[in-house]
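re the bet — no i am not wrong, look at it urself. input seq straight from the record:
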Amino acid sequence: MASHAGGVQTGAATPRAHHEVSGWLVFAAVMMIFGGLMTLFQGISAISNDRVFVATQNYIFQFDLSGWGWVHMILGIVLIVAGLAVFTGAMWARVTGVVLAGLSLIANFLWLPYYPVWAVVLLIVDGFVIWALCTGSSRGTA
């Protein structure tokens, strides 16, 4: 293809507009997908009625275990899809990711009596996701 002195190529097709994402957004997207998968597996385990979780008595946020399982399974699927969308670098994906990670943070806080170690790990993951989505910037906008 020919180009002239300005360095602009002539005859080239117009490239599609895409956002380059920073390392923090990639980190957030990967952690969202990881957290979504863990939340999905958590929900599947609760729904399948196996003996992984301990049912506690007199807990103020009392749901049956299968109800919590459905909440976590749906939230996990949505987190995975939103994590994939964050790879595009779109602002709507970042805002959606912050909202969903916040919801996941609340759900895992309420999940503490059933499986505390897993819930604490997911609380930390969700906190990192929110932080990375809020501080990461698109390279194209800098």
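see?? The mean pLDDT is 80. told u. also Residues 35 and 122 are 6 Å apart (CA to CA). so pay up
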